[in-house]
Amino acid sequence: MQVVSVKVGKLYGVEYVNQLYKQLLTFHKDCVYYCMTDDPEGLHKDIQIIKITDSFKERKWWNKIKLFEPGLFNEPTIYLDLDCYIHTPLDKFLETSHPDKLNILKTAWFSDGIAKKIHMCNVNSSIMVINDHNCEPMWKECHDHIDRMYKSFYGLDPWLYRRHMSSMQFFQPGLAYSFKHGCMYPLDIEQNKLRQLPVCIFDDAQNRKEVLDGLWQSSKVMG
User: Fold this and answer.
1) Which end of the chain has fewer CB within 10 Å, C or N?
2) Is residue 161 in a domain?
3) Per the structure, how many domains does the chain have?
4) Which of 129, 35, 29 minimizes the C-alpha distance to 76?
5) For residue 189, what is the domain's CATH number?
C-alpha cells in the first residue's frame, strides 16, 4: 500500500507526519509512506520524501494540487490530510475506488443542502485515492489556469466540486467521519465523538491538537 501526505510551512509540525506514519504501520507493515514537503527535517528516516516548494504563501492548502501531476505515483495511492487519525485498516478505500476517477470523500455528515450552504460544496479532499492518470483533467487546468483558479476559489474543495465532479467518485459512506460534525446525516451526527470506522478527520475541530495528543499518547486502536 502507498500513502501520501503534504506538509508545507509551519501549520503542522513533524509530529503530525511521524504519528500518521506510526498509525499506518500498525495496520500495514509494508506500507510506503510519502511526504510531499518543503522541509523534511525531523521526519522519520523511513518516510519517502518528495521535495516541493511552497507556491502558495497565503493559502498553503493549494499546494495539494501538486498531487495531481500524472505519473507521480506508480500505483493507486491514498492521500491523507495530516490531521487525520487512523483507527482501522485502509484497504476498503482502495478496494472500492474507481480506477479512472479521482476518488474523494463526501461530507456525508451534512445534508447536501447544508454542505453547499456552509462550504459551497459537498466535497472534502481530506482523503483521496490518486493513481498515475485519474487526475489529468485537474492537472491540466492547474497547469493552464492556476492564477484564475486561485482568484476564483478559496480552496480546492469548491474548485473540484464546480469544475471536476464528472471526473470524481465519492467513497462509499462509513469509511471516514468528521470528529466535529459526525458521520452520516441524519442518522449519526453526534459531535465530538470517536467512532469505530477507518479514519477520523479533524478539519474545523477547535480541540484538534488536544484530542490528537490524547490519541497519540494512548496508542490505543479502536476496532
Assistant:
1) C
2) yes
3) 1
4) 129
5) 3.90.550.10
- Other CB atoms closer than 10 Å to residue 186's CB: what's the count? 9
Q: What's the pTM value of the predicted model, to 2 decimals?
A: 0.95
Tell me whether residue 184 is in a domain.
yes
Domain range enclosing 109:
2-218
| pLDDT tens over the chain, length 223 residues | 999 999 999 989 999 999 999 999 999 999 999 999 999 999 999 999 999 999 998 999 999 999 999 889 989 999 999 999 999 999 999 999 999 999 999 999 999 999 999 999 999 999 999 998 999 999 999 999 999 999 999 999 999 999 999 999 999 999 999 999 999 999 999 999 999 999 999 988 889 999 999 999 986 543 3
